[in-house]
Design a protein that fits this description.
about 270 residues
């Protein structure tokens, strides 16, 4: 029992490191950048740390991704057999099912929680610890739910936009959500190296799946702004399960109404 507790504490500490460093550093930078000058303004309320985020983004995209993650994902896809890739990814994602179950329950999504429970039980047994995905044959598709989405469903905002060096776009809410998710079984009792391997597999597959959209980002006038907007749109899409509310820009609506009134008066 003591050994399990020690492993859990060790793993939780490692998983929380990114959150602690990111949030603490962000708050520190915010405090340092705050001056009493009335001329100081923030161009985007969601991105008060833009002056710091942009260099982090340059490092992440122009260096870490270009020289490490992109070549690694290309080599992984080229040399790893497709069936084996699919199997190990299924195993890695299967470990997220218990947290998904709890996060569904926290939002009173009982049907989704039941499906995720069925997925985990069936894939962990018949599917050989998740290597195979027989649950999909029953129509129980993967519906991953993170605690950050739970917070969003209860009205908690994204918080400031963050670029985690070498890892990419994030936000305070997502970092808090990832921290809480790391406390769920079985992730909390898996030792450091297996967890690192699991995260690496998921990261390589995520980078490989991004290859088709890579040209869009390279052609963007401002890749940083493009990624930031795409990130917040994706978060909203996930919080509302693919049906985000239509946001009306009141200023634009008033301008259109004024223009239409002018046309009517002509």
């Amino acid at each position: 029992m003591n050994r399990i507790k020690n492993i859990a504490l060790k793993t939780q500490a490692i998983f929380s490191l990114k959150l602690i460093l990111t949030v603490t550093f962000s708050l520190f930078l915010t405090a340092c950048s705050t001056t009493p000058s009335s001329e100081q303004t923030v161009s985007d309320p969601k991105d008060p740390l833009e002056a710091i985020n942009r260099p982090f983004w340059t490092f992440t995209w122009d260096y870490a991704d270009k020289y490490v993650f992109r070549p690694a994902s290309q080599g992984y896809v080229e040399y790893m057999p497709t069936d084996l890739r699919t199997g190990v990814l299924n195993m890695a994602l299967n470990l997220n099912e218990p947290s998904t179950i709890i996060n569904h329950l926290l939002q009173a999504k009982f049907t989704d929680a039941a499906k995720s429970t069925g997925r985990f039980v069936l894939n962990s047994t018949v599917g050989l610890l998740g290597f195979f995905d027989p649950a999909s044959d029953f129509g129980w598709s993967r519906q991953e739910e993170e605690f950050g989405e739970v917070l969003g469903s209860y009205g908690v905002g994204d918080g400031p936009f963050l670029v985690v060096p070498a890892l990419g776009p994030s936000s305070v809410r997502e970092e808090v959500g990832d921290f809480v998710d790391s406390y769920y079984w079985p992730l909390a009792v898996i030792d450091f190296w297996p967890n690192l391997l699991r995260a690496g597999i998921i990261g390589l597959e995520a980078r490989a799946s991004f290859a088709d959209q890579e040209a869009i980002l390279r052609d963007a006038i401002d890749p940083y702004e493009f990624v930031k907007n795409a990130y917040f749109q994706n978060m909203q899409y996930k919080v509302y399960d693919g049906n985000p509310p239509i946001e009306v820009n009141q200023a634009e609506e008033e301008n259109i109404d004024a223009y239409l009134e002018e046309l009517e008066g002509m």
